Amino acid sequence: MIAMTLERGLAQMGLTLPVDVQTKLLAFAALLQKWNKVYNLTSIRDPGQILTHHLLDSLVVLPQLAGIERLADVGSGGGLPGIPLAIATAGQHPALAITSIETVNKKASFQQQAKIELGLANFTVVNERVENVHPDAPFDAIVSRAFSELADFVGLTQHLLRPGGRFLAMKGVYPHDEIARLPADFRVVEAVPLTVPGLGAERHLIIVEKS
């Protein structure tokens, strides 16, 4: 039943993922549900809602990652959207390299365990406050899913981004007020409406660049 829901949801989003990738996504959902009983990674407990509210809601941004080779996922909690995106892109050549930056130790520990159990060579976990992270090479893009409001997001993470790189903020309703509070040297270059099957809620990807 859950496998059929995943397959149907991916099809509705126009995503074609191999069976082995779908199997690994379901394995991640099961891991999230298992660890959630002890570590309280998410308030969502229902397996079907984990699928729609977490997996599909993470994968909906996949088409927007074309051309990106190094992606940072900031404040991802249980590894969302980073781990589903890493699973979905692991077979690409080259694979999308994703670094998850998570402050909370128990959440970073879960992500590290998921990396090991799922064999995600293209996924790295950094257990540190984002302002203290200084990567060897800057990222092409930084994604966040309910990390903070836009002004804080770009302010705290801009040192991680290469010149010309993009901030990808996953939001619910169109955040007019947050956009108005962006610093003057940042601008929204695109706002992409997102439709997540089974979610029944308004979603947007706000793409920001530094002028």
Q: What do you see in this structure?
A:
With 211 residues, the protein is of the alpha/beta class. The protein has 7 helices and 7 strands; from the N terminus they run H-H-H-E-H-E-H-E-E-H-E-H-E-E. It is globular and about 50 Å long. It has one domain (2-210): Rossmann fold. The chain has a 7-stranded mixed sheet, with helices on both faces. It is 38% helix and 23% strand.
Short description:
This protein is 38% helix and 23% strand. It has 211 residues and is of the alpha/beta class.
Offer a few descriptive terms.
alpha/beta, Rossmann fold, seven-stranded mixed beta sheet, 23% strand, rRNA processing, 38% helix, 211 residues, rRNA_ssu_MeTfrase_G, rRNA (guanine-N7-)-methyltransferase activity, single chain, EC 2.1.1.170
Structural class: alpha/beta
Q: Kindly state the mean pLDDT as a whole number?
A: 92
Q: Got a strand count?
A: 7
Secondary-structure element pattern, one letter each: HHHEHEHEEHEHEE
Helix content: 25-40%
Cα shape: globular
> Could you state the oligomeric state of the chains shown?
single chain
Number of helices: 7
Instruction: Note the beta-strand portion.
Output: 15-25%
Main location: cytoplasm
Subcellular location: Cytoplasm
Family: Belongs to the methyltransferase superfamily. RNA methyltransferase RsmG family.
GO cellular component, one term: cytosol
